[in-house]
Amino acid sequence: MTGLDKIVGEIEQESKDGVNAILDEARKKADKITGEAEKEIHAAEKEIADRAAATAAQALKQADEAGDIIKRRCLLAAKQEIIEETLLAAKKKLYGLSDSDYAAFLEKLIIENADQGRGVITFGKEDAGRLPEGFVDKVSAKLTDGRSVAEGNSVADFAHGFILSYEGSYENVSIDELFLAKKDELTDIIKETIFD
Length: 196
Fold this sequence. Notes:
The protein is α+β, with helices and mostly antiparallel strands. It has helices spanning 3-95, 99-113, 125-128, 135-142, 175-181, 183-195, and strands at residues 117-123, 147-151, 161-166, 169-174. It has two domains: 1-95; 98-195, ATP synthase, E subunit, C-terminal (hypothetical protein PF0899 fold, 2-Layer Sandwich). Strand 3 (161-166) and strand 4 form a beta hairpin. The protein is rod-shaped. It starts with a helix and ends with a helix.
């Protein structure tokens, strides 16, 4: 081998060694970059997964809370419906009393609501024909302390109960008004009886 071939061979070898060193260094840098990228990808994947899990947990919690609210609203609406049906049934039962029992009920109402002086009673449309002859006179005889009542010549604009009029004032004692005035008290009784 000539000296020139030897020099060319050494240059080629040095070039190969340099290229291999550069390639090794490039591979190391590429591996390092790839490793760091993989770590960042894993960290990003974990962060996204954690956020997704937190979002899903929050969504489930909100769905549960919304479900509870809807459940409570439905339960409240059902209870309210039961209360209204019970009040209506109580009215119907009252209207369904025998004529004598219903007259006794109205008698108590008149005695409780009569004021001083002479009052005029105007009965509801349904009650006017249901009461026995002389009913108002009989009730008036039971009143004391300067109280008396007489039957009016007209009929009230409601079905059940009466209007008790005095000079300058009147009291609506219709059954609907009585139930309305006592609705909170009756509702509490129904709740205690049915729901407790």
